Amino acid sequence: MGKVVYCNCDSENSNFWKFFVDNFQEYSLKALYATCHNLNGQGTMLKYDGNNIIRQTLQGTGDFNSPECLNIMDSCDIVCT
């Protein structure tokens, strides 16, 4: 209960992302995060709280090994890849 899930190489088109959004309440999640690369080389992060999806541009490329994405991962309970 109250877990934070991170999909570290996914966008809103990912089946992992869709699964966790669709089952957010059933699993009593606290938050869902996803990061991905964009074609322009800039990374994107999605945050979902059960009601709203917030899209943010990352400082870097969204590479899962980047310090920015590793910090996100460290703040989460479950990483789904």
Instruction: Summarize model confidence as the mean pLDDT.
Output: 93
What is the rounded distance between the termini?
A: 20 Å
Coarse morphology? globular
Number of helices: 2
Give the strand tally. Answer: 5
Largest sheet: 5 strands, mixed
What integer value in Å does the Rg equal? Answer: 12 Å
Class from secondary-structure proportions: alpha/beta
Element-level helix/strand string: EHEEEHE
Question: Strand-residue fraction?
Answer: 25-35%
Amount of helix:
10-25%
Low-confidence stretches: none
The order of strands across the largest sheet is 4-3-2-1-5
Q: How are the secondary structure elements laid out?
A:
Elements: E1 4-7, H1 15-22, E2 31-37, E3 43-48, E4 53-57, H2 67-74, E5 78-79
Features:
2 helices; globular; alpha/beta; 81 residues; 5 strands; 5-stranded mixed beta sheet
Description of the structure:
The chain has 81 residues and is an alpha/beta fold. Helix content is 20%, strand content 30%. The chain has 2 helices and 5 strands; from the N terminus they run E-H-E-E-E-H-E. The chain has a 5-stranded mixed beta sheet, with helices on both faces. Helix 1 (15-22) links the parallel strand 1 and strand 2. The longest helix has 8 residues, at 15-22. The radius of gyration is 12 Å and the shape is globular. The two termini are 20 Å apart.
